[in-house]
Amino acid sequence: ESPHEPVLTVTGLRKAFGGVQAVDGVELSVAPGEFVSIIGPNGSGKTTTVNLVSGVLRPDAGEIRVGGVRLRPGSQEAAAAAGIARTFQNGRVFGNLTVRENISVGLHTALRAAQPWRGLAGFPVLRWLPLLAELALALIPTPAVRAERLHAEAEVDTQLSRFAERLGPRADQLAHTLSYANRRRTEIARALALQPILLLLDEPAAGMNQSETAEVGAQLAELKAAGHTIVLVEHKLELVNALSDRVIVLDEGRIIAEGAPAQVRADPRVIEAYLGR
Ligand code: ADP
Q1: From ligand 1's centre to the CA of 45, what distance in Å?
Q2: Which numbered atom of ligand 1 lies nearest the CA of 45?
Q3: Is the distance from the beta carbon of residue 183 to the nearest atom of ligand 1 less than 6 Å?
Q4: Close Cβ partners of 15 (under 8 Å, ≥ 6 residues apart)
Q5: Domains contained in the chain, number
Q6: Which atom of ligand 1 has the smallest separation from the CA of 233?
Q7: Structure-derived torsion over alpha carbons of residues 78, 8, 3, 245, reported in degrees to the nearest 10
Q8: Tens digit of each residue's pLDDT (9 = 90 or more) over 40-92
């Protein structure tokens, strides 16, 4: 892999729902450390694009490459293993887990993936074996597993301290008792704990008031400054304009404009797509 290899390359991406061509031949490429925003009117295919890249949906056509390696289509596990982490438009946290547990969820999944005997759970006769193996591990943890656990705990602490003011005091609170904004912060912290190569954020400031939106903006600016590679889907153009190296404008599943924020803002096709209906 050359240092200039894009983190993400998407070619000929298509997805239809019934008669609706939600994504219609999208091509995009994201360089290491780049902050790319995807904007467009409602229903223009932004979330579907994110769902395709993160393996939530399987494309009808097209290719998704991470670091030059083709992703298995429609597999969230493959996307996660390749280093893609994402947040969801409505915010998804496990209400009956604490903030700390929510942040560590993905890490534990990664840990589990490294424990092959778990696969045995699928065979009824052998169902008790994984349990026994885990019990044994809990009693005599191998150095590798112990190291993984310590790493996971350290990573959760790192993310908690990132949101120290907001999430710190609530680390052991159940997520369903959190405010909406704090649920969304928890979700971002969980994505970051995975130390992703590419972070996909689907409207992280949706439903937030002005000061909360500004706070998310500051948080994202910090991530950008730290060199994270980010794709942001966002309606709030003040965030998009302040953060983006490049803006991609979708309309009816197609890219109608692309460039620096100021350039895109002045594009007649963009003005038409937003105002001409
Ligand atoms: P955006 O995120 O830009 O608002 P979406 O990607 O959510 O747009 O949707 C693009 C188009 O695909 C819309 O017409 C929407 O109604 C349709 N669509 C999205 N998801 C589904 C689905 N699961 N089933 C049917 N139609 C869908």
Answers
A1: 6
A2: 6
A3: no
A4: 21, 22, 23, 45, 48, 52, 57, 59, 60
A5: 2
A6: 2
A7: -140
A8: 999 999 999 999 999 999 999 999 999 989 999 999 999 999 999 999 887 78
End-to-end C-alpha distance for the chain, whole angstroms:
45
Residues 52 and 138 in one domain: no
Using the 3D structure, point to which of 149, 176, 203 is the last residue of a domain.
176
| Nearest-angstrom CA–CA distance, 10 and 23 | 12
Task: State whether 203 and 272 are in the same domain.
Answer: yes
Domain hosting 212: range is 1-93+178-277
Cα separation, 44 vs 63, whole angstroms:
20
Report how far ligand 1's centroid is from the alpha carbon of 127 (Å): 40
State the pTM of this model.
Answer: 0.85
Site to substitute for ligand 1 among 20, 58, 201, 252, most atoms within 8 A of C-beta:
20
Tell me the pairing of strands 35-39 and 230-233.
Answer: parallel
- Express each pLDDT in 105-143 by its tens digit: 877 655 555 555 544 545 555 666 766 776 666 666 677
CA–centroid distance, residue 16 to ligand 1 (Å): 9
Taking the C-alpha atoms of residue 262 and residue 253, their distance in angstroms, rounded to an integer, is 22
Q: What is the CATH number of the domain that holds 67?
A: 3.40.50.300
